[in-house]
Structure formats: C-alpha cells, structure tokens
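Data availability (excerpt). The following record was deposited with the supplementary files.
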Amino acid sequence: MSVVVALDASPCAGTRSGVGRYVEDLAAGLDALGHPPALVYQGHHGPLFPPVAEHACARRRYDLLGGRVGAYLRLPHVLRNLGADVYHCTSTIAVPGPGWNGRVVATVMDCYPLAPGAQVSPRHRRLFAQLLGAILRRATRIIVPSRATADELRALGHAGPLEVVPLGLRPIAPGPRPPTAPAGGYLFTLGAIEFRKGLHLLAAKRPPLPWIHCGPLRNDPGGRIVAAMDAAGCRRLGFVGEAERISWLSHATLLAMPSQTEGFGYPPLEAMALGVPVLAFATGSLPEVLGDAAQWTTPERLGDDLADLVRDAGRRSVLAAAGRRWTAAFSVETMARAHRVIYG
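Predicted structure:
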C-alpha cells in the first residue's frame, strides 16, 4: 500500500522563491514517479504558481485559510480527511496541531536568522527560533539540502538524525536575448535584495561591466543596499517571471554570487547549466554545491577577480564547460526518489 503524502505547498504561493522552486520540482518529481502528493497551503500569500496549480498534484489541494493559528487548528482535520500518513513541512507556517498522529517530515533550508551577525530584527529572530523549534520537536525526519545546513542545525544543538538531500535541477534551455540587454555583455546577479546576498559588497567594487539584477526587495532597512547598487550603476529589474529570468541569465557574461551564506543556491547551478561562468564566495553550502566549477573569490579579492574574469575569455570558457559537466549530477528525479525513501 502506497504511503499517502501531504506536501506543504505554502512556499509556492505568492512571490516565487528558492524554497518554492524546490517544492514545485518535488511535487512534479513525485508525480512522475507515480506518487503524487496532496498539496496543502496557505493561500493568503497569493495563488499557487501556475505550473503547480495546473499540475496533476493540484487535483487534491487545500487552502488552510487564516494565519498560523488557523493553519495549526485546521491542518489536522485536513490531514485526517486525506488519510495522510506523512505531512511534509517545507515552511515555518504550518505544523500540525493535536488531532492527527501521522508522521511529520520537515525540510530546513538554512538557519540564517539565527546566525551570528544576521541582519534581521530581534522579533524576526525570536519568531524563527520558536517556529524552527516547533518543527524540530514534531518532525520524525529532517531533510536538509546541504552539509552546511546540517552543520548549522548541529551548532544550534539539534542532536537528531539529518538527511542531506541535494536539490534537483530541472532541464533548462537558453532563452532569447533580452531586447534591452547591453550589447557589449553584462554582469548578472539574481536573488532577493537583502544583506546576506552581499550585493552591497559587489556594489562597492564598481563592476567593470554593465550590471543587471533580477530579484525583489526583501530586507533593506534604510535603503542602504539599494542606494549602493544604484550608485554602482546597477539596473534593478525587480521580480521577473521565469522566462525573462532565464533569458537574462542565458546571455550574461558571468553571474556573480557574493552571498555570505546559502542553504543551497539555485542561481549559480542554473547559470552553470546554461554555460554561464560563476564568480562566488566560498561560503555556506556553495563550495559543496558548486565544486570546482566556479571561480572562487573573497570580499577582499572580489574587485580584482571580477576584473580578471571579465578580461579572460579563455578562463570563462573553461568555467562554462566545467559548469555544464558538473550540473549533470543534479536531477529532480534523484531528489524525488530520495524523498520517497525518507517518507517510507
């Protein structure tokens, strides 16, 4: 008898994020294996992403309505009606309250709000700690996307078993060149504008190429990061759809990833799959996720290494070829099969 899985699809509602991408790919991967999960989510963030809403999995989808308290109270009822054996929690929004005794599997992408020096409010830090604690107490299996995240949880005192499952990368094809792309090439960055992404460090180096950034404003108290990016001549496009994002990424001279911490890191893997060289800091999960296929740098060397890579077309070609080979190991099917084993 197949295990019935209810998947927390809340990260797939509203603005697309890396976690939402993971849940979207996982649902599709499980469905392709013949084990489509039911989707449980909180719709007040917005509708489900169209690819998720139109997928076969979405035939069984349930909007929990209300905030965290409402989700906490309604979720056991929904899980009982589904006959769910496993609830896979992928966000800090909804952990089942009393009234359902099935197994909880949880994915923890990173613990950045609790990291020393994290640029988050004290309230955000306290709330994240409370919600993460509730998840860790309730879950019987914890999935992390990298050894770096596993190390973060260990440092916070978690002594239970952890399952390291790298995220999968769906097949990706280059998009058409954006009509407004600079003719002589451009530097590309991708992701939410917030302190940990290190965009202020890149701005301080005054990149030698036109700089294009795609990603929403998430956390920039006082507007200092945006001001630094603007002063460096960055063209900020904000949040863009997937097709437009892939088009900008496909034709970039290189992708810069000056992030100070990452639980996994989809953007550099996508860049590599498209043959775009990557310049990154060796922080968080990035060394294990990108291997030897990236050009590594430091905050002190960032400006010089960026200028060198822009000048050295031969080195960029070597990185492009290495990136394509490296990303072949990351598949959605492999990720989905690993989750099926964990579900039992």
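Summary of structural features: The chain has 13 helices and 15 strands.
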